[in-house]
Amino acid sequence: MKSLLTIREIIPTLHDQILPYIKLLSMLMSESRVLRPRSNLLTGMAGYIRNDIYFDIMRALQGIGPATVLPNGIALLARTYSAGRRKSLVFSLFGATAPAGFFIGALFSSIFAQFSWWPWSQWTVAIVCITLAIMAYFVIPAEVSFAVHPMGKIDIPGAVTSVAGLVLIIYSWNQGPVVGWDKPYVFVLLIVGFLIIGAFIFIEMKVDEPIMPPSIWSVSGFPGVILCIGLGWSSFGIWIFYLIQVIEVLRNTSPLLVAAMFFPIIPAGLTATLLVSQLYHRVAGHYLLMASMVFFCVGNILVATAPVDQTYWAQTFVALILTPFGMDISFPAASLIVSNSMPLSQQGVAASMINAVINLSVSLGLGIAGTVESQINKSGRDVLRGYRSALYAGIGLSGLGIIVALLFCRVPAVVPADEKKELNETAVSSVMAGSEIAMTVGESNLPKGEGLEQELPRIDQSEQKPISYHNITKVYL
């Protein structure tokens, strides 16, 4: 159970830093600068771990990097591309970096751990981050990196209360399954965390420059999208953690072989992203979100019902093919919905909310699953039953996400700007062509109706309706 905490040490800081960071950066600097990962040094220092406390601190501080990069990357893409197929493709490819990055990180960390020395995995990440930071400085266009609120103010009370409240909630929520919910300090910290979050909400309603403007919750479909993403990714967190536990603990598989088994997520994720880029302007966003919840649910079902001695190529392989569709459909679909519905000044905050909810929900989902597992596994004597019970919780969360996506995330399909322009030009051409034909017939020497009534029925003038350019245009749009 301690490993359950290990995988989540990075989550609180990653989530909590996002909103304060995005507000600060929108005021003080160009958003291209935020792609310099601020946790490079901390990542390298994680290689010098000597005890659990140092490990926990370094893992938490590593969250500053993703908290900075992810929302600002989305904001940069949203400003660079207008609504259309190209924007859908770019956002989809951005979402595909998640499974690809997961596999590459798992593969190389397993190689270092099994054949060399595990700190090299941390040092390698630090080297890569520094290289990418230098590249970002020279590659990202300066014209899209302007500050949105250059004269804004930092909401210090909001930043402090949001970070403090979420840290206490996440810590107590995940500490409960480890030490037991009967420990008084677990409940005390959980209650205090919720009280601080209540104070944060009150502050955001009163200050002039909040880090989370209350107005974003009034945008149509946004609350439902956030709830749907939270349910789906909490289910995904349960799936990925307990799938690894089943393969490593129950099937006694080496870490390197486990990493190799996860290779199917790369082609599956790339296929999913390309599919979203082609479907987003044809299919309403809530249907895409609902489909992603279905993939999350099916993945949990396949792992929960797989026998321990079953071959990898049966349910496990199928789960690794299907579940990435949930990741790579939900993330770009939600990001596109937000970027197309939010004003420019709030796109960074809305994007940070999506990333915050994704990371927070993974941690909260694992807390729920860990609690279920600890209550069902008979004090560790029935490990398989505990794992399956946790996966059943994931099935329930993703199933609820399907309902939320269908009922509370309804948004219209987005017509690409280039396609809309083409349709408008076609409509105008049709109207002009119709006018020219009418003028030609009217100016001919042919008597009215002569030569026509034998081939076409005469039209009763009383039943004719005037041609409206607006009505013709609506047919095309």
UniProtKB/TrEMBL annotation:
Give its localization.
Answer: Membrane
- One Pfam family linked to the record: MFS_1
User: Which keywords label this protein?
Assistant: Membrane, Transmembrane, Transmembrane helix
Major localisation:
membrane
GO CC, sorted alphabetically, is:
membrane
* Membrane topology classification: Multi-pass membrane protein
Q: Which PROSITE patterns does the record match to this protein?
A: MFS
What residue stretches are annotated with the Major facilitator superfamily (MFS) profile domain?
Answer: 1-413
Q: The organism sits in which domain of life? A: Eukaryota
Q: Does the keyword Membrane apply?
A: yes
Q: Which PANTHER family match?
A: LOW AFFINITY AMMONIUM TRANSPORTER (PTHR42718:SF1), MAJOR FACILITATOR SUPERFAMILY MULTIDRUG TRANSPORTER MFSC (PTHR42718)
Its protein name is Major facilitator superfamily (MFS) profile domain-containing protein
